[in-house]
Amino acid sequence: MCVNKAVLSVERELERQTVLITRAVQPTGDRLARLLTGAGAKCIQGPVIAISPPESWDSLDQALDRIENYRSCVFLSQHGVQAFCRRVEKLGKSDLIDPVKTRLSFFCVGEGTQSEWMRLSGCSSTVPNESNSRAMATLLTEQQQESPFLVVRGNRGSQVLEENLVAAGIRFKQVVSYHSVDVEEADPQLVMQMKDGHFNWVTVTSSAIANSLIRLYGSSLKKTRLASISPITSAVLLESGFQPAVEAKEYNFAGLVNAMSQHASSESKGDLQ
Predict the structure, then answer these.
(1) Which of 20, 41, 164, 221 is the S-S candidate for 137 at Cβ 3.0 to 4.6 Å?
(2) How confident is the model at residue 268 (pLDDT cuts 50, 70, 90)?
(3) In the chain, which residues fall in CATH 3.40.50.10090?
């Protein structure tokens, strides 16, 4: 609840501003779009990545067949939650996500992932105090758990969690439950609108999205404001010569919307040069 209050506190500073949302299509609705709309923005969907099943289910299926080897399961994204639950149901292992029968404990990166996990399974989960892999690594290290963690993730993304767990000597097994792939071509209408400076903002919510966005739109991105969700994402943009207008202080959707709203408020008051 406090997330929504934080967004509402900016008093719709994004009124009459058009935002291009570039994350993959969300089958259960886009939480980022809801937050932006609540802040007054007009949202346009222009995904630059797409989500598909993994090339093979072998790694996840093998982990599920040997689930007694694990005590906890870690989800890094809503897509991971969705794919995991679908696979568990298909294999007839629904007891694993039954809040009464399961013996597993669950961890989620971010409130959005946690909400999706609760919606699909009814099971509670623990989230770190920040919505990023480094905070999750710290949380898992604090568990002092002897059995390995099962980490459910996509085929690409930050390796921060893996690196930190290895450094801390934590045992874990990573399994791929979905693939993130680049969109080959952007909608021609969106390309034209980008060139014409139609968008006040473009959201950039992962390093994969940053790379695909740059490939699809190139120098036209200089005609909009890029809103980055984290330093890792900003680094990808900067490496290609694109300066984010804002970077979220809290690495989640609410933090991103707040950063955009504060920028818009300062701009309207003439505080930005």
Answers:
(1) 164
(2) confident
(3) 2-48+184-268, 52-181
The matching CATH number, chosen from 3.40.50.10090, 2.60.40.420, 3.40.50.300, 3.30.1360.20, for 52-181 is: 3.40.50.10090
Higher pLDDT, 102 or 11: 102
pLDDT in tens, 189-212: 999 999 999 999 999 999 999 999
SS3 195: helix
Spatial separation of the C-alpha atoms in residues 110 and 223, rounded to whole Å: 31
Question: Three-class SS of residue 220?
Answer: helix
Sheet order of strands, 225-228 included: 42-45, 18-21, 201-204, 225-228, 246-247
The per-residue pLDDT for range 6-58, each reduced to its tens digit, is 444 446 899 999 999 999 987 667 889 999 999 999 999 999 999 999 999 99
What's the rounded mean pLDDT across residues 133-144? 92
CA geometry: angle 64, 67, 70, nearest 5 deg: 130
Q: What's domain 2-48+184-268's architecture?
A: 3-Layer(aba) Sandwich (3.40)
Q: Which tokens is 86 given? A: 């679908």
